[in-house]
Every structure is written in C-alpha cells, then in structure tokens.
Amino acid sequence: MRSVHLYFYNIWQALSTIAIGMKVTFSHLFTPAVTVQYPDVRLKLPERARNRLYVNIDDCIGCDQCSLACPVDCISIETIKATADQDLGVTSTGQKKRLHVPRFDIDIAKCCYCGLCVYPCPTECIMMTDVYEFSEFDRHNLIYNFSRMVPADVEEAKEKLKKADEEAAAKKAAAAAAAAAAKAAAPPPPAAGSTPSPEPPKPENPTQS
C-alpha cells in the first residue's frame, strides 16, 4: 500500500512541476515579443559603458601613469625627452609637453575593460568608448597604435637628444677641469697651528736726511 501511495505521489509531483513551468510559458505566449533587429538596430549603451579604449595623442604627455595602472600590461609606451630648442606645445588642459611619444600601443586583446587606466591620466587623454564591434581574424590587428611619429621623426628626436646630452657632458667636463685648474693654481693654505712669517724690514731711503 505504501508503494502505491508513493507511486501516485511521484506522478502528482511531476505533473505539478510541469504545470508550474507551463504557467510561465503560457503567460509569455500572448505577450508581444520585443526583439532588436541587430545589426540594423542597436541598443543605446549607458553613458559610462566600458568598451574599446581611445587615446587622444595630442594631449598625451608620456607620463606612463595609465600603463602603470593597467593590471594586464596591455599598454606599451616609449618616450624621448625633448631638447631645449624644441617646442612640443601644450595639451588641451594647458599642460606643457616635454616628451615625444614615439610609441603608444594598446593590445585590446588583453584588455579586461576595467577602466583603471582612465582615472590616473592627468590630461584625460585616454578614455573608454562605446565601440564594442571590433572583432578581427588576426590578433595582431587588435594592437592599436596611437602614436603619429614616423621612424624618421623618431630618429631625428633621438639624434637631437644625443647631441644635446653630449654638449651638456662636454660643458660639465670643461667646468670641472676649470675648477680643478683654479684649485691647483691657488696657494696652499697655511698648516694648522703655524704662525705666518714676519715681513722683512724695509730698507731706509739714504736720500732722506
């Protein structure tokens, strides 16, 4: 008798479970469906959506803060110091640019879209965009190069910096040599505890009476 009761109980439990599921199904059966016809129609993303990174290289000062903040090392930056005769201009925030940026690469295949690189940037040149369609067949195409310096410009900047460093080193060496020569020409200071020798008496003038 117990087995018969258990048998019908299992049947009831199965039917009730199916009924609960079908209730949800029937509740949506006569509701108009809302389907976005992608890609012809796209949903508007939130204002603070985090997708592909963009860099306004004109505002970059090469501080490397974004690269240091990146947890997956997807940002690679190289800089060259500008010489005194070069004017690189200022950023949109009024900050003077003192470094060339021959390389500013972002490997978006490594990016985890955390946004940690955006906040430490002092000029706000790096930002998250709403672009989310950037799939590629080749992963190398996901490395974005934002620097606009061509190889000739990079070599010229390096040569100018090298020449300026050599001139500065030569001036420093010449100043050190002049200081050493002046020190060698100066009379030695008297030894500690010694008294200066008295001056010899001046001879009397025989013409005086």
What does this structure look like?
- It is built from three helices and five strands.
- With 209 residues, the chain is an alpha+beta fold.
- The protein has a domain of 101 residues: Alpha-Beta Plaits (2-Layer Sandwich), CATH 3.30.70.3270.
- The strands form two sheets. The protein has a three-stranded antiparallel beta sheet, with helices on one face. The protein has a two-stranded antiparallel sheet with strand order 1-4.
- The longest helix has 35 residues.
- It starts with a helix and ends in a 24-residue tail after the last helix.
- The model has no long low-confidence stretch (mean pLDDT 86).
Q: Give the CATH topology of the domain at 53-153.
A: Alpha-Beta Plaits
**Radius of gyration, in angstroms, nearest whole number:** 40 Å
The best one-word shape is elongated
> Which series of helices and strands comes N to C?
HEHEEEEH
Strand arrangement, largest sheet? 2-3-5
Contiguous low-pLDDT stretches (5 residues minimum) are none
Task: Please name the CATH architecture of the domain at 53-153.
Answer: 2-Layer Sandwich
The CATH class of the domain at 53-153: Alpha Beta
Helix % is: 25-40%
Mean pLDDT: 86
Helix vs. strand class: alpha+beta
The fraction of residues in strands falls at 5-15%
Euclidean distance between termini CA atoms: 164 Å
* Largest sheet properties: 3 strands, antiparallel
Count of beta strands: 5
* Number of H/I helices: 3
